[in-house]
Design brief:
The chain folds into three domains: 149 residues, NAD(P)-binding Rossmann-like Domain (Rossmann fold, 3-Layer(aba) Sandwich); 161 residues, Dihydrodipicolinate Reductase, domain 2, CATH 3.30.360; 62 residues, 2-Layer Sandwich (Alpha-Beta Plaits), CATH 3.30.70.1150. The protein is of the alpha/beta class and 397 residues long. 36% of the residues lie in helices and 27% in strands. Strands 7, 9, 10, 11, 12, 13, 16, 17, 18 and 20 form a ten-stranded mixed beta sheet that branches. Strands 3-2-1-4-5-6 form a six-stranded parallel beta sheet, sandwiched between helices. A hairpin with a 2-residue loop joins strand 17 and strand 18.
Protein backbone atom coordinates (compact mmCIF):
# COMPACT_ATOMS: atom_id res chain seq x y z
CA UNK A 1 0.00 0.00 0.00
CA UNK A 2 1.22 3.48 -0.90
CA UNK A 3 0.17 6.20 1.52
CA UNK A 4 -0.36 9.75 0.29
CA UNK A 5 -1.19 13.02 2.00
CA UNK A 6 -3.11 15.87 0.39
CA UNK A 7 -2.22 19.43 1.41
CA UNK A 8 -5.31 21.59 1.04
CA UNK A 9 -8.90 20.45 0.67
CA UNK A 10 -10.28 23.13 -1.62
CA UNK A 11 -11.41 22.63 -5.20
CA UNK A 12 -8.28 20.80 -6.39
CA UNK A 13 -7.59 18.92 -3.15
CA UNK A 14 -11.11 17.56 -2.93
CA UNK A 15 -10.91 16.61 -6.60
CA UNK A 16 -7.71 14.64 -5.97
CA UNK A 17 -9.41 12.73 -3.15
CA UNK A 18 -12.41 12.03 -5.36
CA UNK A 19 -10.36 10.73 -8.31
CA UNK A 20 -8.20 8.53 -6.08
CA UNK A 21 -11.33 7.06 -4.49
CA UNK A 22 -13.46 6.64 -7.61
CA UNK A 23 -10.65 5.06 -9.62
CA UNK A 24 -9.07 3.12 -6.77
CA UNK A 25 -9.38 -0.31 -8.38
CA UNK A 26 -8.37 0.96 -11.81
CA UNK A 27 -5.22 2.54 -10.38
CA UNK A 28 -4.37 -0.59 -8.40
CA UNK A 29 -4.61 -2.70 -11.56
CA UNK A 30 -2.21 -0.33 -13.32
CA UNK A 31 0.55 -0.24 -10.71
CA UNK A 32 -0.11 -3.37 -8.67
CA UNK A 33 -0.54 -1.52 -5.39
CA UNK A 34 -3.33 0.32 -3.62
CA UNK A 35 -2.99 4.06 -3.11
CA UNK A 36 -4.39 5.12 0.24
CA UNK A 37 -5.20 8.66 1.35
CA UNK A 38 -3.82 8.74 4.88
CA UNK A 39 -4.03 12.46 5.65
CA UNK A 40 -5.66 15.64 4.38
CA UNK A 41 -4.16 18.86 5.71
CA UNK A 42 -6.44 21.87 6.06
CA UNK A 43 -7.18 24.61 8.57
CA UNK A 44 -10.86 23.65 8.47
CA UNK A 45 -12.81 20.59 9.54
CA UNK A 46 -15.15 18.83 7.15
CA UNK A 47 -17.55 16.88 9.38
CA UNK A 48 -19.92 16.02 6.51
CA UNK A 49 -17.19 14.78 4.18
CA UNK A 50 -16.48 11.06 3.68
CA UNK A 51 -12.84 12.03 4.28
CA UNK A 52 -13.52 13.77 7.62
CA UNK A 53 -11.49 11.24 9.61
CA UNK A 54 -8.39 11.93 7.52
CA UNK A 55 -8.25 15.68 8.17
CA UNK A 56 -5.35 17.00 10.26
CA UNK A 57 -4.31 20.57 11.04
CA UNK A 58 -0.61 20.11 11.75
CA UNK A 59 1.75 19.55 8.81
CA UNK A 60 4.32 17.96 11.12
CA UNK A 61 2.04 14.94 11.55
CA UNK A 62 2.46 14.27 7.83
CA UNK A 63 6.11 15.24 7.75
CA UNK A 64 7.09 12.86 10.53
CA UNK A 65 5.03 9.88 9.37
CA UNK A 66 7.44 7.58 7.55
CA UNK A 67 4.53 5.66 6.02
CA UNK A 68 3.61 8.67 3.85
CA UNK A 69 5.71 8.47 0.68
CA UNK A 70 3.88 10.94 -1.61
CA UNK A 71 2.55 14.40 -0.81
CA UNK A 72 0.07 16.17 -3.12
CA UNK A 73 0.32 19.93 -2.64
CA UNK A 74 -2.93 21.67 -3.56
CA UNK A 75 -2.79 24.69 -1.26
CA UNK A 76 -2.32 27.50 -3.76
CA UNK A 77 -0.14 30.55 -3.18
CA UNK A 78 3.60 30.63 -2.64
CA UNK A 79 3.86 30.25 1.12
CA UNK A 80 3.61 27.96 2.99
CA UNK A 81 3.20 25.72 -0.08
CA UNK A 82 6.84 26.01 -1.17
CA UNK A 83 8.08 25.55 2.41
CA UNK A 84 5.97 22.44 2.98
CA UNK A 85 7.03 21.01 -0.39
CA UNK A 86 10.72 21.54 0.36
CA UNK A 87 10.39 20.03 3.84
CA UNK A 88 8.59 16.95 2.48
CA UNK A 89 11.25 16.41 -0.20
CA UNK A 90 14.02 16.66 2.41
CA UNK A 91 12.19 14.00 4.43
CA UNK A 92 12.35 11.62 1.46
CA UNK A 93 8.77 12.10 0.31
CA UNK A 94 7.97 12.70 -3.36
CA UNK A 95 5.80 15.74 -4.05
CA UNK A 96 3.26 16.45 -6.79
CA UNK A 97 1.52 19.78 -7.29
CA UNK A 98 -0.88 21.80 -9.41
CA UNK A 99 0.55 25.06 -8.03
CA UNK A 100 1.96 27.00 -10.98
CA UNK A 101 3.13 29.87 -8.77
CA UNK A 102 5.35 27.56 -6.72
CA UNK A 103 6.77 25.83 -9.80
CA UNK A 104 7.40 29.10 -11.65
CA UNK A 105 9.06 30.76 -8.67
CA UNK A 106 10.89 27.86 -7.01
CA UNK A 107 10.76 24.88 -9.37
CA UNK A 108 14.53 24.85 -9.90
CA UNK A 109 15.19 24.64 -6.17
CA UNK A 110 12.53 22.00 -5.54
CA UNK A 111 13.74 19.80 -8.41
CA UNK A 112 17.30 20.01 -7.06
CA UNK A 113 16.09 19.17 -3.54
CA UNK A 114 14.14 16.19 -4.86
CA UNK A 115 17.17 14.87 -6.74
CA UNK A 116 19.44 15.31 -3.73
CA UNK A 117 17.03 13.27 -1.59
CA UNK A 118 16.33 10.51 -4.10
CA UNK A 119 12.67 11.37 -4.63
CA UNK A 120 10.60 12.96 -7.39
CA UNK A 121 8.91 16.32 -7.91
CA UNK A 122 6.17 16.39 -10.56
CA UNK A 123 3.80 19.16 -11.63
CA UNK A 124 1.87 18.14 -14.76
CA UNK A 125 -1.27 19.89 -13.46
CA UNK A 126 0.47 23.26 -13.14
CA UNK A 127 0.04 23.97 -16.87
CA UNK A 128 -3.05 23.17 -18.90
CA UNK A 129 -5.09 21.50 -16.16
CA UNK A 130 -5.86 18.01 -17.42
CA UNK A 131 -4.03 18.44 -20.74
CA UNK A 132 -0.99 16.13 -20.82
CA UNK A 133 1.62 18.57 -22.12
CA UNK A 134 4.55 18.86 -19.68
CA UNK A 135 5.50 15.18 -19.65
CA UNK A 136 5.27 14.82 -23.46
CA UNK A 137 7.33 18.00 -23.86
CA UNK A 138 10.03 16.65 -21.55
CA UNK A 139 10.02 13.05 -22.77
CA UNK A 140 8.20 12.34 -26.05
CA UNK A 141 9.69 15.44 -27.70
CA UNK A 142 13.09 15.10 -26.00
CA UNK A 143 14.79 14.24 -29.31
CA UNK A 144 13.78 17.62 -30.74
CA UNK A 145 15.36 21.02 -30.52
CA UNK A 146 12.36 23.07 -29.46
CA UNK A 147 12.13 26.15 -31.64
CA UNK A 148 9.03 27.73 -30.15
CA UNK A 149 6.08 27.29 -27.84
CA UNK A 150 2.93 29.34 -28.30
CA UNK A 151 0.13 28.75 -25.85
CA UNK A 152 -3.39 29.83 -24.97
CA UNK A 153 -2.77 29.15 -21.30
CA UNK A 154 -5.64 30.78 -19.46
CA UNK A 155 -9.24 29.64 -19.89
CA UNK A 156 -10.74 32.78 -18.38
CA UNK A 157 -9.16 35.16 -20.87
CA UNK A 158 -9.87 32.80 -23.75
CA UNK A 159 -13.55 32.68 -22.77
CA UNK A 160 -13.70 36.50 -22.62
CA UNK A 161 -12.03 36.90 -26.01
CA UNK A 162 -14.29 34.25 -27.54
CA UNK A 163 -17.35 36.16 -26.33
CA UNK A 164 -15.94 39.35 -27.85
CA UNK A 165 -15.10 37.64 -31.16
CA UNK A 166 -18.20 35.49 -31.64
CA UNK A 167 -20.90 37.59 -29.98
CA UNK A 168 -19.62 41.17 -30.15
CA UNK A 169 -19.57 41.67 -26.38
CA UNK A 170 -17.33 44.28 -24.84
CA UNK A 171 -14.51 43.23 -22.51
CA UNK A 172 -16.44 44.51 -19.50
CA UNK A 173 -19.61 42.58 -20.36
CA UNK A 174 -17.71 39.36 -21.16
CA UNK A 175 -15.72 39.59 -17.92
CA UNK A 176 -18.86 40.04 -15.83
CA UNK A 177 -20.41 37.02 -17.51
CA UNK A 178 -17.25 34.97 -16.86
CA UNK A 179 -17.46 35.89 -13.18
CA UNK A 180 -21.13 34.92 -13.04
CA UNK A 181 -20.32 31.51 -14.55
CA UNK A 182 -17.45 30.92 -12.14
CA UNK A 183 -14.76 31.13 -14.84
CA UNK A 184 -13.27 34.30 -13.34
CA UNK A 185 -12.55 35.25 -9.75
CA UNK A 186 -14.10 38.28 -8.07
CA UNK A 187 -10.62 39.79 -8.43
CA UNK A 188 -9.67 38.68 -11.96
CA UNK A 189 -6.29 40.45 -12.09
CA UNK A 190 -4.11 37.32 -12.28
CA UNK A 191 -6.09 36.12 -15.28
CA UNK A 192 -6.90 39.23 -17.30
CA UNK A 193 -3.51 40.90 -16.80
CA UNK A 194 -1.62 37.79 -17.94
CA UNK A 195 0.00 36.85 -14.61
CA UNK A 196 -1.36 33.30 -14.65
CA UNK A 197 -0.30 32.72 -18.25
CA UNK A 198 3.14 34.16 -17.47
CA UNK A 199 3.80 31.56 -14.76
CA UNK A 200 2.74 28.78 -17.11
CA UNK A 201 4.90 29.87 -20.04
CA UNK A 202 7.87 30.11 -17.65
CA UNK A 203 7.34 26.45 -16.72
CA UNK A 204 6.99 25.37 -20.35
CA UNK A 205 10.13 27.31 -21.29
CA UNK A 206 12.08 25.69 -18.44
CA UNK A 207 11.20 22.22 -19.67
CA UNK A 208 12.03 23.13 -23.28
CA UNK A 209 15.26 25.03 -22.65
CA UNK A 210 16.42 23.83 -19.23
CA UNK A 211 16.44 27.25 -17.59
CA UNK A 212 13.77 28.75 -15.34
CA UNK A 213 13.15 32.43 -15.97
CA UNK A 214 11.64 34.36 -13.07
CA UNK A 215 8.13 35.61 -14.02
CA UNK A 216 9.11 39.12 -12.94
CA UNK A 217 11.54 39.25 -15.89
CA UNK A 218 8.92 38.32 -18.48
CA UNK A 219 7.24 41.04 -20.55
CA UNK A 220 3.57 40.52 -19.67
CA UNK A 221 0.51 42.29 -21.05
CA UNK A 222 -3.08 41.21 -20.42
CA UNK A 223 -6.33 41.69 -22.31
CA UNK A 224 -8.01 44.42 -20.26
CA UNK A 225 -7.28 47.07 -22.90
CA UNK A 226 -8.55 45.04 -25.88
CA UNK A 227 -11.37 46.96 -27.56
CA UNK A 228 -14.27 45.51 -29.50
CA UNK A 229 -13.10 47.64 -32.44
CA UNK A 230 -9.76 45.81 -32.41
CA UNK A 231 -11.50 42.44 -32.38
CA UNK A 232 -13.62 43.45 -35.39
CA UNK A 233 -10.63 44.85 -37.26
CA UNK A 234 -8.67 41.66 -36.66
CA UNK A 235 -11.56 39.54 -37.92
CA UNK A 236 -11.83 41.65 -41.07
CA UNK A 237 -8.16 40.96 -41.75
CA UNK A 238 -8.47 37.20 -41.11
CA UNK A 239 -7.23 37.04 -37.54
CA UNK A 240 -8.48 36.19 -34.05
CA UNK A 241 -7.08 37.94 -31.00
CA UNK A 242 -5.74 35.50 -28.40
CA UNK A 243 -3.70 35.93 -25.23
CA UNK A 244 -0.53 34.06 -26.16
CA UNK A 245 2.29 32.94 -23.91
CA UNK A 246 5.32 32.60 -26.13
CA UNK A 247 8.75 31.03 -25.61
CA UNK A 248 11.20 31.01 -28.51
CA UNK A 249 14.79 30.10 -29.19
CA UNK A 250 16.40 33.13 -30.79
CA UNK A 251 20.06 32.51 -31.60
CA UNK A 252 20.36 30.09 -28.65
CA UNK A 253 18.82 32.59 -26.24
CA UNK A 254 15.38 32.45 -24.64
CA UNK A 255 12.64 34.87 -25.62
CA UNK A 256 9.65 34.62 -23.28
CA UNK A 257 6.62 36.93 -23.26
CA UNK A 258 2.86 37.08 -22.72
CA UNK A 259 0.62 39.39 -24.74
CA UNK A 260 -2.60 39.49 -26.76
CA UNK A 261 -1.64 38.73 -30.33
CA UNK A 262 -3.37 38.47 -33.69
CA UNK A 263 -3.49 34.81 -34.73
CA UNK A 264 -4.24 34.01 -38.38
CA UNK A 265 -7.28 31.82 -38.99
CA UNK A 266 -5.10 29.17 -40.61
CA UNK A 267 -3.06 28.83 -37.41
CA UNK A 268 -4.05 25.85 -35.26
CA UNK A 269 -4.51 28.09 -32.21
CA UNK A 270 -7.01 30.44 -33.84
CA UNK A 271 -9.98 28.16 -33.21
CA UNK A 272 -9.10 27.12 -29.66
CA UNK A 273 -12.11 28.82 -28.13
CA UNK A 274 -14.13 29.23 -24.96
CA UNK A 275 -12.45 27.95 -21.76
CA UNK A 276 -10.18 25.58 -23.66
CA UNK A 277 -6.39 25.86 -23.60
CA UNK A 278 -4.08 25.06 -26.48
CA UNK A 279 -0.30 24.65 -26.61
CA UNK A 280 1.43 24.64 -30.00
CA UNK A 281 5.00 23.32 -29.89
CA UNK A 282 7.37 23.48 -32.83
CA UNK A 283 10.33 21.08 -32.84
CA UNK A 284 13.00 20.73 -35.50
CA UNK A 285 12.06 17.08 -36.12
CA UNK A 286 8.29 16.95 -35.58
CA UNK A 287 7.36 20.43 -36.84
CA UNK A 288 4.09 21.54 -35.14
CA UNK A 289 2.38 19.55 -32.38
CA UNK A 290 -0.83 20.84 -30.77
CA UNK A 291 -2.13 19.94 -27.30
CA UNK A 292 -5.70 21.05 -26.58
CA UNK A 293 -8.22 20.53 -23.80
CA UNK A 294 -9.85 22.01 -20.74
CA UNK A 295 -7.16 23.92 -18.93
CA UNK A 296 -8.81 24.23 -15.54
CA UNK A 297 -11.55 22.86 -13.33
CA UNK A 298 -11.64 20.48 -10.41
CA UNK A 299 -11.66 17.14 -12.18
CA UNK A 300 -9.30 17.87 -15.13
CA UNK A 301 -6.71 19.33 -12.75
CA UNK A 302 -7.17 16.51 -10.24
CA UNK A 303 -6.77 14.02 -13.07
CA UNK A 304 -3.31 15.41 -13.86
CA UNK A 305 -2.26 15.45 -10.19
CA UNK A 306 -3.34 11.84 -9.71
CA UNK A 307 -1.53 10.88 -12.92
CA UNK A 308 1.67 12.20 -11.32
CA UNK A 309 0.96 10.20 -8.17
CA UNK A 310 0.44 7.07 -10.24
CA UNK A 311 3.63 7.75 -12.21
CA UNK A 312 5.68 8.03 -9.03
CA UNK A 313 4.06 4.98 -7.46
CA UNK A 314 4.67 2.91 -10.59
CA UNK A 315 8.08 4.29 -11.57
CA UNK A 316 9.83 5.71 -8.49
CA UNK A 317 13.26 5.26 -10.08
CA UNK A 318 12.74 7.82 -12.87
CA UNK A 319 15.06 10.80 -12.55
CA UNK A 320 13.93 14.39 -12.25
CA UNK A 321 14.66 16.96 -14.89
CA UNK A 322 16.84 19.65 -13.30
CA UNK A 323 16.77 23.32 -14.26
CA UNK A 324 19.25 26.13 -13.91
CA UNK A 325 18.05 29.59 -13.03
CA UNK A 326 17.98 31.76 -16.13
CA UNK A 327 20.41 34.67 -16.00
CA UNK A 328 20.11 37.92 -17.93
CA UNK A 329 22.61 36.73 -20.56
CA UNK A 330 20.38 33.70 -21.27
CA UNK A 331 17.58 35.97 -22.47
CA UNK A 332 17.15 37.42 -25.94
CA UNK A 333 16.63 41.20 -25.88
CA UNK A 334 12.97 42.07 -26.39
CA UNK A 335 14.03 44.83 -28.77
CA UNK A 336 15.41 42.25 -31.22
CA UNK A 337 12.16 40.29 -31.63
CA UNK A 338 10.92 40.52 -35.23
CA UNK A 339 7.15 40.68 -35.84
CA UNK A 340 4.53 42.34 -37.95
CA UNK A 341 2.08 44.52 -36.02
CA UNK A 342 -1.60 45.40 -36.07
CA UNK A 343 -1.93 49.11 -35.43
CA UNK A 344 -4.90 51.44 -35.01
CA UNK A 345 -4.18 55.16 -35.11
CA UNK A 346 -6.12 58.41 -35.17
CA UNK A 347 -3.88 59.56 -38.03
CA UNK A 348 -5.02 59.48 -41.65
CA UNK A 349 -4.04 56.69 -44.02
CA UNK A 350 -1.61 59.03 -45.80
CA UNK A 351 0.03 60.00 -42.50
CA UNK A 352 0.30 56.35 -41.43
CA UNK A 353 1.95 55.41 -44.72
CA UNK A 354 4.38 58.27 -44.38
CA UNK A 355 5.42 56.98 -40.94
CA UNK A 356 5.29 53.20 -41.33
CA UNK A 357 5.98 52.81 -45.04
CA UNK A 358 4.40 49.85 -46.84
CA UNK A 359 1.31 48.80 -44.86
CA UNK A 360 -1.83 46.74 -45.40
CA UNK A 361 -4.95 48.77 -44.69
CA UNK A 362 -7.79 47.10 -42.77
CA UNK A 363 -10.37 49.80 -42.05
CA UNK A 364 -10.88 53.52 -41.84
CA UNK A 365 -13.88 54.94 -39.99
CA UNK A 366 -14.90 57.15 -37.08
CA UNK A 367 -11.55 58.91 -37.06
CA UNK A 368 -9.56 55.68 -36.78
CA UNK A 369 -7.32 53.97 -39.32
CA UNK A 370 -6.31 50.33 -38.78
CA UNK A 371 -3.56 48.53 -40.66
CA UNK A 372 -0.88 45.83 -40.54
CA UNK A 373 2.82 46.63 -40.82
CA UNK A 374 5.61 44.67 -42.42
CA UNK A 375 7.75 42.56 -40.09
CA UNK A 376 10.30 44.58 -38.16
CA UNK A 377 12.25 44.56 -34.93
CA UNK A 378 10.35 45.66 -31.84
CA UNK A 379 12.74 48.57 -31.30
CA UNK A 380 12.13 49.84 -34.83
CA UNK A 381 8.36 49.54 -34.39
CA UNK A 382 8.45 51.51 -31.14
CA UNK A 383 10.46 54.27 -32.81
CA UNK A 384 7.92 54.54 -35.64
CA UNK A 385 4.93 54.30 -33.30
CA UNK A 386 6.25 57.22 -31.27
CA UNK A 387 5.70 59.41 -34.34
CA UNK A 388 2.03 58.45 -34.69
CA UNK A 389 -1.05 58.81 -32.48
CA UNK A 390 -1.49 55.14 -31.63
CA UNK A 391 -4.81 53.99 -30.17
CA UNK A 392 -3.88 50.32 -29.98
CA UNK A 393 -1.10 48.05 -31.23
CA UNK A 394 -0.76 44.29 -31.11
CA UNK A 395 1.92 41.90 -32.31
CA UNK A 396 0.96 39.35 -34.97
CA UNK A 397 1.86 35.76 -34.17
Amino acid sequence: MINVAILGFGVVGSGIAEVLTQNKDLIKNKIGEEINIKYILDLRDFPDSPFADKVVHDFNIILNDEEVSIVAEAMGGLHPAVDFSEAALKKGKSVVTSNKEVVAEAGDMLLKTATENGVRYLFEASVGGGIPVLRPLGTCLAANKINSINGILNGTTNYILTQMIDFGKTFEVALKEAQQKGYAEANPTADVEGIDACRKICILAAIAFGKLINPSKVSTTGISKIRLEDVKNAANAGYAIKLIGQAKDIDSKMYVSVAPRLVAYNNLLAKVDDVFNGVLINGNAVDDVLFIGRGAGMMPTASAVVADIVDIAGRPEIKNQNWDKAEDNDLAPLSEKISAYYVCVSNTEEQAKAIFGDIKAISSCDGEFAFITNAMKKLQFEELASKATVISALEIL
